[in-house]
Amino acid sequence: MKSKKKLSIMIIFVGIVALVIFGIFNFVKPTPKISGKNVKAQNSSRKNVISLPEKSDSEEWNLILVNAKNVLSKDPDFQKVAVDQPYGDSGNIYVDQRIQKALRKFRTAAENAGYPTIFISGYRSYDTQKSLYEAAGGSSQNPVLTQRPGASEHETGLAFDLVGQQIWNQVGALQPTQLEAGKDQQWLIINAPKFGFILRYPKGKEAIKQTGIDYESWHFRYVGVKNAEYIMNNNLTLEEYISLLKKAGR
Ligand SMILES: [Zn+2]
User: Fold this and answer.
1) Cα 27 to averaged position of ligand 1 atoms, centre (Å)
2) H runs (alpha helix) in the chain
3) CB neighbours (10 Å) of residue 117?
4) Are 197 and 117 in contact (CB under 8 A)?
5) In contact, 109 and 192? CB cutoff 8 Å
């Protein structure tokens, strides 16, 4: 009598457990099969989303895109600070205050590695770019100076021209391959992303579709560390990176 009762209690218990497990299984069961085409589309969009840096968004302040096709209509509004100039003339070179700390770290690290730097050019106002453009007659050999006013990245305060002091003392001009040959310039180019900077106009990416600007081994641009490392590791231009973000709905 006693053992029969025990047995029936046990059967009821096992039944309840089975029902619970069945219920959970049904609850978490994946959604119904989707067609091969859908799987493919889902996988490829998921791949992009996963491989892009977390939380990166094309609307971030440090991802502003300025080029011949994306022209500023006026000076962007940001706080300007003077750049430290331990080796050159001090004074009137400015950048966006938000990149000051990263820029200092970058230059200090270069110096500690044995490569002091010279800051050539930073923020340019719309009017400055306009007079440079007019002075160059639109046909100067210097592609940065020939950018129309509003189309130069220098107007964002996030871009600047930086060279190693040693190679600059030898070359003394913005010559891409000659400067690039310097160990100090190499150090700057390779290590920039650790501090949130990219070499904005890399070699082999000069086509209009991409940067539209010749290789410049001295022109750096702040985009933040996670964006910079992604751009560098994947050999992208800023144009390509922003288009990837937009494709991923960011
Ligand atoms: Zn520049």
Assistant:
1) 58
2) 2-28, 36-51, 100-112, 126-135, 165-171, 176-180, 183-191, 225-233, 238-247
3) 24
4) no
5) no
Distance between CA atoms of residues 56 and 223, nearest Å: 10
Q: Which amino acid is at 137?
A: G
The angle, 0 to 180 degrees and rounded to 10, between the axes of the packed helices 183-191 and 100-112 is 140
Question: What are the structural domains, with CATH classification, of the chain?
Answer: 2-51 (no CATH), 61-247 (3.30.1380.10)
**Ligand 1 centroid from CA 43, angstroms:** 39
CA of 10 to the centre of ligand 1 (A): 80
How far does the centroid of ligand 1 lie from the alpha carbon of residue 243, in Å? 22
pLDDT at 130 over 80: yes
More confident residue, 21 or 169: 169
Q: What is the pTM of this model?
A: 0.77
What does the pLDDT read at residue 94?
A: 93
* pLDDT single digits (tens) 152-179: 999 999 999 999 999 999 999 999 999 9
The count of other CB atoms within 10 Å of the CB of residue 232 is 18
pLDDT of 190-223, one tens digit each? 999 999 999 999 998 888 678 888 899 999 999 9
Are residues 180 and 186 in contact, defined by beta-carbon separation less than 8 angstroms? yes
Angstrom CA distances, 206 to 78, 129, 201, 211, 242, stand at 29, 21, 7, 6, 17
Q: How many CB atoms lie within 10 A of CB 82?
A: 14
**pLDDT cut 70: percent of the chain above it:** 76
Asked whether 60 and 250 are in contact (CB, 8 A), the reply is no
